[in-house]
Amino acid sequence: MMTSWESPAVQQLLADERIALSGFPHADALVAIYPFLSKVVVPRGVTDIAKDRPPTDVALIATKASLVVRRDLHPAFSICCSTLRPRSIRDRVYSTIQTNFPLLNPLTFR
Hints:
The protein folds into two domains: 1-64, no CATH class; 65-99, no CATH class. The chain is α+β, with helices and mostly antiparallel strands. The chain contains four helices and two strands. The longest helix has 10 residues, at 87-96.
């Protein structure tokens, strides 16, 4: 499932005691192999501290937000685009990702 933590669907699933959050035991390896992924840890008790849900820290993976442009686009324009995205998205990204954003590292898409 790829959606935000604040999503009503995610919150409903996390509140359902019949559903357990499943993690990625190899999250660190996946992040090392695939540079477009990030490791995200859901802390123990974050969904319901009284019921200790989840009962342990859970490692998940997430995709990094990327700006994809054509090779012939001037680099100054791609930087401009990355700083002009909507403020609500920019604020949410800055508050939830503890790394440098935007990542201006080139990736190859085929």
